[in-house]
Amino acid sequence: MNVIIRELTNDSEEIDNVQEFLFGMIKKEFGYDYVPEWHQDIVEIDEYYINPEKNNFYVAYFEETGEIIATIGIRAYDKDFPEFRHLYSKDTTSSIWRLFVDRRCRRCGLASKMFTIAENFANQAGYNDIYLHTHKNLDGAIEFWTKMGFVVALDSNDELETVHMDKQIHELEINPQADDFKYAVTL
Question: Which residues are within 8 A (CB) of 154 and not within 5 positions of it... i.e. 6 or more apart?
Answer without folding.
Answer: 83, 84, 163, 164
